[in-house]
């Protein structure tokens, strides 16, 4: 697992502590006809809910109920573990659109006469279709950065994506979701909590090292650390990066 952590940190410029403390790899198998219609991996910012990965740090309500939670996945890295004989592409229906609005979605219905979420029947009508290649990975950002505080902002609407139908063979993938709390202080507290319960792994690979040398080695360091998100990430016109594992 440390191999993936350091490769993702090197690719994105995000501190390895954030990558380490995110969700474990989620491995999925698709058999013939298997697919996943278009969706977003994260959920919109909401003052009435807290991030699921750090919800244990938030107090319960006055009646003892845990806080309402939502997914906070700043980034997705998708690893292609196998390669189907046919089909199984990853499609981004609205990638490279100049704008994204609900009216724009209606435009797709009116002009293209299809449901952009239906990747069984309209995979290749998507703006961007990525062929699955064993041993490669693609990544995209599920959130924009907030212009004022340069921290996690609103949902990146262009991240709408899904898995096209496997026509022949089978497909295995692994989802690697990078979790970041939109509440900066709570993200720092979460990192400190993870360090308290287990330190990030050392780099065991001889591949590229992380581009950010920030090394949070103690709870106090986590509290003092100035955690930043990369500023040179791709805009929505080129929303995916592709890299060999």
Automatic annotation (TrEMBL):
The keyword Iron applies. The keyword Transmembrane applies. GO terms for cellular component: endoplasmic reticulum. Residues 196-226 are annotated as: Disordered. Keywords: Iron, Membrane, Metal-binding, Oxidoreductase, Transmembrane, Vitamin C. GO terms for molecular function: L-ascorbic acid binding; metal ion binding; procollagen-proline 4-dioxygenase activity. Residues 20-180 form the Fe2OG dioxygenase domain. Belongs to the iron/ascorbate-dependent oxidoreductase family. PANTHER family: PROLYL 4-HYDROXYLASE ALPHA SUBUNIT (PTHR10869), TRANSMEMBRANE PROLYL 4-HYDROXYLASE (PTHR10869:SF246). This is Putative transmembrane prolyl 4-hydroxylase-like.
């Amino acid at each position: 697992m440390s191999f993936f952590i350091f490769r993702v940190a090197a690719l994105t410029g995000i501190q390895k502590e954030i990558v380490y403390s995110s969700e474990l790899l989620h491995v999925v198998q698709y058999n013939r006809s298997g697919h996943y219609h278009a969706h977003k991996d994260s959920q919109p910012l909401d003052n009435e809910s807290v991030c699921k990965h750090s919800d244990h740090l938030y107090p319960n309500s006055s009646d003892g109920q845990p806080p309402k939670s939502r997914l906070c996945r700043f980034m997705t890295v998708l690893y292609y573990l196998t390669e189907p004989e046919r089909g199984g592409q990853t499609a981004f229906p609205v990638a490279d659109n100049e704008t994204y609005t609900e009216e724009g979605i209606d435009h797709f219905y009116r002009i293209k006469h299809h449901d952009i979420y239906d990747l069984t029947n309209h995979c290749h009508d998507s703006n961007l279709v990525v062929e699955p290649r064993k041993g490669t990975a693609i990544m995209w950002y599920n959130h924009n950065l907030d212009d004022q505080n340069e921290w996690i902002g609103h949902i990146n609407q262009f991240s709408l994506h899904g898995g096209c139908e496997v026509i022949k063979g089978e497909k295995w993938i692994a989802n690697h979701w990078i979790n970041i709390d939109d509440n900066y202080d709570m993200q720092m507290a979460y990192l400190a909590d993870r360090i308290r319960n287990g330190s990030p792994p050392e780099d065991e690979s001889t591949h590229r090292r992380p581009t950010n040398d920030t090394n949070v080695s103690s709870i106090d360091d986590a509290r003092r650390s100035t955690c930043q998100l990369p500023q040179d990430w791709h805009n929505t016109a080129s929303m995916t990066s592709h890299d060999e594992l």
